[in-house]
Design a protein that fits this description.
This protein has 10 helices and 7 strands. By secondary structure, it is α/β, with parallel strands linked by helices. It has a single domain (4-190, 219-244), classed as NAD(P)-binding Rossmann-like Domain (Rossmann fold). A 7-stranded parallel sheet has the order 3-2-1-4-5-6-7, sandwiched between helices. Helix 3 (48-59) links the parallel strand 2 (40-45) and strand 3 (65-70). The longest helix has 22 residues, at 108-129.
Length: 254
């Protein structure tokens, strides 16, 4: 666990951030930690109740500024209407859904919906946000360990692999304009998306036993990396992916 004093020395005062998927899990943790560091945060999600809970968590920290808006990231017009008047310094693409099925059992509808949220949703946010971003700026995109190794779930894996490539491509395209683009790839993190698997004690212990650090991750583990990439500590970092999996990927071929 990161010592609280280390997080507290990073200041994002005067910066405006948007975080998608902020109604739960990694998105919520990212929105809260950016707000705690002094950024003014716009938290987006399709889940109104989840956003309300995120606002409640943020309100427990003094002097934070966190606004919320309910929106489906797969709807370009809706995203444009929310972001059209925003002058942003930080963009965190974190919205995501899962279709935990094999090729044989993944329906065309499942495939379309996962890509609409997990890939096209990222594109929609970028199309709407980048023209209004301040320079220097930072874009952080949440990919996945699965995007690196093609592990399970074709729709989800395909989208997350695409995010890795998109982030690298945009780093080259937007770098000359002063916008950095990086990604973060979580491993097994205890969130609502993984709750069915990791809430089972035996399953969680099996995964932890195979992970070199002998534990599964928490949303704050990913949020800490988001804070680093949003801050000036990473001013010369772009086109990079940070894999945060406790070393699990190194054991999957054993």
């Amino acid at each position: 666990m990161v010592h609280e004093s280390l997080v507290n020395v990073i200041s994002l005062n005067g910066r405006r951030a948007v975080v998608t998927g902020a109604g739960s899990g990694i998105g919520r943790a990212a929105a809260v930690i950016l707000a705690k560091a002094g950024a003014s945060v716009l938290a987006l999600d399709i889940d109104r109740e989840g956003l309300s809970a995120t606002k409640g968590v943020a309100s427990q920290v003094s002097d934070v500024e966190l606004d919320v808006a309910t929106v489906d990231v797969s709807d370009l017009a809706a995203i444009e209407s929310v972001l059209s008047d925003e002058s942003l310094d930080i963009v965190v693409n974190s919205a995501g859904i899962m279709a935990p099925d094999s090729l044989a059992t993944t329906s065309g509808q499942d495939w379309d919906r996962v890509l609409a949220v997990n890939l096209t949703g990222y594109f929609n946010v970028l199309k709407s946000a980048v023209p209004h971003m301040n320079r220097p700026g930072s874009i952080i995109q949440i990919s996945s360990m699965m995007g690196h190794i093609g592990l399970a779930f074709p729709a989800y894996t395909a989208a997350k692999g695409a995010i890795l490539s998109l982030s690298r491509q945009l780093a080259g395209e937007l770098g000359p304009d002063g916008i950095r683009v990086n990604s973060v790839s979580p491993g097994m993190i205890l969130t609502g998306m993984t709750q069915d698997d990791l809430s089972d004690g035996d399953q969680r212990h099996r995964i932890a036993d195979r992970t070199p650090l002998r534990t599964v991750g928490a949303p704050d583990d990913i949020a800490n990396a988001v804070l680093y990439l949003a801050s000036d500590l990473s001013a010369f970092v772009t086109g990079t992916d940070i894999l945060i999996d406790g070393g699990l990927i190194s054991t999957l071929d054993l």
